[in-house]
Amino acid sequence: MISVKELKHIYTDADGHEVSALNGINLDIPAGEFIAIIGANGGGKSTLARHLNALLLPTSGKCIVDGLDTAEEKNLWDIRQHVGMVFQNPDNQIVAAIVEEDVAFGPENVGVPGPEIKGRVDRALAAVGMSEYAKHAPHLLSGGQKQRIAIAGVLALEPRVIVLDEPTAMLDPQGRKEIVRTVKQLNKEKGITIVYITHYMTEALEADRVVVMEKGNIRFSGTPHEVFSRVDELEKAGLEAPLAAKIASELRKSGIKLPKEIITDEELAEVLCR
Amino acid sequence: MSIDIKNICYTYMRGTPFEKKALDDVSVSIDKGEIVAVIGHTGSGKSTLVQHLNGLLRPDAGQVAVDGISLAGKDAAAKKARQLVGMVFQYPEHQIFAETVYEDIAFGPRNRGFEPEEVDKQVREAMAFVGLDFETFARRSPFRLSGGQMRRVAIAGVVAMNPDYLVLDEPSAGLDPRSRNAVFKEIMALHKSRGIAIVLVTHSMEEAVKYAKRMLVINQGRILFDGNPADIFKNHQQKLVEVGMDEPQVFKLAALLRKQGMELPQGITDDVTLLQMIKKAKGWR
């Protein structure tokens, strides 16, 4: 679905210095995958995300989305409709005074015929579990609800990929759970490819594959089990492994033999309480 | 010395169809030197509450006093009392505006009427506090710094006003784990060295239990619980989930291990203790 080849992104900062944000990234994301990208601030996660729907263009290398090269201007509209983006702050993404109008904004904008828009809005709201709020004012909703409206707005464009850049950074625990549940459902039930950027390791645990970025490079990647059991390497990259993985790693260091790849509470309890 | 809130009520958009009661007869005192975490779901009223601490919002009913001086007044004493309470908002880096780091941090103390030498001293101290080297950063544009560095500049700007009480609204939102730890290290150092009271609004249960001795749980405009974070998490787990909160990870893991038969003591609040107790329970050294 997405193929990133030797992607470099170099920009000139205000002092005239060239800064390399991505140093030749290679990444293939098959259709239907749920991929999480983690990494310290300034590691290039958001820059990479912005290449996936041509908000940024490669300095060199390629970014191909569903066979379309993002560098070719004629592909722009198609790519933007294939790849929806959701950002951190739900308040900055909501444009209308009524929920259903907000969700309709995208399809209206790309010229979807009127009668079809209604159906798309209804389906999008149903998919994020917000149908009963269709006539509500978005600013009176909770953070998690607002963010689900933002996701519905993207869904109404019927994208094949949704890129979410720290969608839960501003949410309370309940809101965070709502978003992760919603995203997983869209992935499993509708087969939408998900690229999910987060600082919460517990959220990345839900993905099919986790990619660790640092200083414009992909440091390592693999299943959540492969990635999160590398406790020391994660720490070096400015990240923190889940608690169970940290405890397991400390126990191993003091000579206790434990199976590899313990990352969840349940797995740790299983081996310790057997 | 304390901030005393007595029976305050606050309603947004009063008299419109959108009228919403955000605070409903809230009373609480925060002593100088305390670290208080404030948790609650979005819309619970926690941000509204903390915005009363420095008079940013004025209550519809009730009183707010800082060190015994009511914030309701328009006189110099009330103005001074308000300035004792520093406020770092969510995403404070969005409030950076000056051309250099120095000028941005100096804005607050200048506004407070400090003499130029005092301003300079406060800026230098504040930068040292948040771990920004003066020679390296003072003359640089704050807009060319990384997210974590910008946030430190913003916090330094509030610290430079030399407040007695510091309110931080989600200071770690959007930061990676390393930057989160760095920001908190600075906040705790500030608390220790100057005895500043810290009011920490957070969505992270881990932060609440790790850094605060006292926690307020806000729900529907009222204080639902007020007490030691570990005690609240232990005794009111069900209720906390009902109001959209969660348990810290350490509590969850310890509870699961206990349930599966491991003998762990109650009240484990951090990773290191949990690790020790697991070793002890298993007879490992």
Largest interface between protein chains, with number of residues from each side: A-B, 43 and 44 residues
Largest sheet data of chain A: 6 strands, mixed
- Looking at CATH, the homologous superfamily of the domain at 1-84 and 163-177 and 194-245 in chain B is P-loop containing nucleotide triphosphate hydrolases
Percentage of residues in helical conformation of chain A: 25-40%
Number of domains of chain A: 1
What percent strand of chain B?
A: 15-25%
Q: What is the helix content of chain B?
A: 40-55%
Q: What's the level 1 CATH class of chain A? A: Alpha Beta
Sequence-ordered SSE layout with sheet pairings:
The complex is a heterodimer of chains A (274) and B (285).
Chain A lengths: L1 E11 L5 E12 L4 E6 L5 H8 L7 E6 L2 E2 L6 H7 E4 L12 H11 L4 H14 L15 H13 L5 E5 L7 H18 L2 E5 L3 H4 L4 E6 L2 E6 L1 H5 L2 H6 L6 H11 L11 H8 L2
Parallel strand pairs in A: 3-8, 3-9, 6-7, 7-8
Antiparallel strand pairs in A: 1-2, 1-4, 4-5, 9-10
Helix pairs in contact in A: 3-4, 3-5, 4-5, 5-6
Chain B lengths: L1 E11 L7 E12 L3 E5 L6 H5 L10 E6 L2 E2 L5 H8 L1 E4 L12 H11 L4 H14 L4 H4 L9 H13 L5 E5 L7 H18 L2 E5 L3 H7 L2 E6 L2 E6 L1 H7 L1 H6 L6 H11 L11 H12 L3
Parallel strand pairs in B: 3-8, 3-9, 6-7, 7-8
Antiparallel strand pairs in B: 1-2, 1-4, 4-5, 9-10
What attributes characterize this protein structure?
heterodimer, A: 274 residues, alpha/beta, Rossmann fold, six-stranded mixed β-sheet, four-stranded antiparallel β-sheet, B: 285 residues, 22% strand, globular
